[in-house]
Amino acid sequence: MSYAASPADSAPSAPAPPGSTPQTSGPQMSGAERAVFALGDVFGGGAAATLAVLYLFYLTDIVGLPPGLAGTTVVVSKVWDAINHPLMGIITDRTRTRWGRRRPWIFAGALLLPPAMAGLWAPIGDWDSQSAKVWFVILAHLFWTTVASIVAVPYGSLSTEITTDPDERSRVNVLRLGCATFSAVGCTLVMNALVNAFTEGHLSMTTLYLSLFLGFGTFFAVPLLFVARFTHERAPVAEHPDAFNLKVVISPFRIASFRRLTAMYLCPSITIDIVTSVILYYALYAVPEFAPSSSPGSSPW
To answer: CA 245 to CA 279: how far, in whole Å?
Structure first.
């Protein structure tokens, strides 16, 4: 994944590569463009939080998969995620279009988000075949993970390229992270309320399913479509990408500090995944006053 070059403040800069946007000092984005770009991260915050908290519960208590099988399907998607993220970075770095490198992928991914969510939260609880459920969940989750990478990787790269002014880049990314945080909290609360209403019999299967994939899918996709349409890539880009070299991809792992940083990132990430995955089970089965009046999953999909 490439990173934007910082503007030269004192020394004269070299000419920008052909086909690139010249670097300029000072703010380059309007307030509307900053807001549009920041709102694009409602997907990054909201989707990640709802999956972390509720997806495993959905697989076990609504779809009806045994916990071991449900966890295995998630692991398969995590392994693919570790592959497709770098792969998507390589692809988007080498994309050259009149609309830039990142925005065409964000646009395509945004259009695919609703159907990906339709598969992710599909009402397959009444299927008789356990193996059919497992394979459907694996394929749906792999599709979702692929679509999420198509959106998240170019969007994350665009955050370093949307302006060449370091101060403006810092401000817009703080705003972006704020939108992601509020989205994570809000989406988790709303989705948890929907699932609780369903398990208590106050919400029909159809209403829950439409809320999950149409409601949330639209909520995530529309801001990203606006990002693709109304933002701009301003970092200089070489007219022709460098040839792919696998050694360049793996070379950071030869640096001890990079390996330590990777371990520091993985340890809290794994811990957070474990806590968020079990917290709903704990609330339902270990804290009686939070348990719904009817048994979770008693109304299978």
So the answer is: 43
What are the tokens at 246? 């696998």
- Alpha-carbon distances of 124 from 20, 71, 212, 229, rounded to whole Å: 49, 17, 14, 36
What is the C-alpha radius of gyration for the chain, rounded to an integer number of angstroms?
A: 21
Q: What is the number of helices (H) and of strands (E) in the chain?
A: 11, 0
Supply angle C-alpha 66, 70, 73, rounded to 5: 145
In this prediction, residue 21 carries a pLDDT of 47
pLDDT in tens, 147-177: 999 999 999 999 999 999 999 999 999 999 9
Low-confidence ranges of the chain (pLDDT < 50): 1-22, 294-301
Query: How long, in residues, is the chain?
Result: 301
Whether residue 194 contacts residue 208, with contact meaning beta carbons closer than 8 Å, is answered with yes
Domain borders along the chain are 31-235+284-290
Domain 31-235+284-290 - what CATH class?
mainly alpha
On whether the CB atoms of residues 191 and 52 are closer than 8 A, the answer is no
How many other CB atoms are there within 10 angstroms of residue 20's CB atom? 16
- Cβ atoms of residues 177 and 41 within 8 Å: yes
> 10 Å Cβ neighbour count for 185?
13
The torsion defined by the Cα of 100, 37, 155 and 278, in degrees rounded to 10, comes to: -170
- Cα atoms in the 13 Å half-sphere on the side-chain side of 184: 15
Three-state DSSP class for residue 242: coil
Q: Which of 170, 226, 229, 227 is CA-nearest to residue 27?
A: 170
The residue type of 214 is: L
CA angle 204, 207, 213 (to 5 degrees): 135
Q: Are 113 and 288 in contact (CB under 8 A)?
A: no
Report whether 80 contacts 140 (CB < 8 A).
Answer: no
